[in-house]
Design a protein that fits this description.
- By secondary structure, the protein is an alpha+beta fold.
- The chain contains three helices and eight strands, in the order H-E-H-E-E-E-E-E-E-H-E.
């Protein structure tokens, strides 16, 4: 589940790790590709076959060795789903963070969903 992946990334960044591996799923790959597009992660690679397939994530740090991700706030949980329309999508941390949504067109960042006029499930907030 993407929640476990986000927590693994956050923990690896606090320990200053270079890479982290997570179990593969198509949805995880879509979420991670969106994180790479927005610049929170450096790159992702699929490795292995069948049940042993994993995604290897290269983490991104700035010149002072500070992690690119300060914190992650999970919004939709398995017990409580949160849905928003495109008009209700707010800016995160005065524009310094991003909301990630699961829309009918795939996983998108808040600005991209507003431009395409798509609402969906509000997954998490990252800054």
């Amino acid at each position: 589940m993407y929640i476990d992946t986000l927590i693994r990334i956050k923990n690896a960044m606090t320990r200053k790790k270079d890479r982290v591996k997570v179990p593969y799923s198509q949805f995880e790959e879509n979420v991670l590709e969106s994180l790479v597009k927005t610049g929170y992660l450096d790159e992702i690679q699929k490795k292995g076959r069948g049940v042993k397939r994993v995604i290897e994530i290269k983490l991104k740090y700035d010149k002072e060795e500070k992690s690119r991700i300060s914190d992650v706030k999970l919004i939709s949980l398995p017990s409580k789903r949160v849905y928003v329309g495109w008009k209700d999508i707010k800016k995160s941390h005065q524009g310094y963070g991003n909301f990630f949504l699961s829309t009918p067109k795939g996983v998108m960042v808040d600005g991209e969903a507003r431009r395409n006029r798509l609402g969906g499930e509000l997954l998490f907030e990252i800054w």
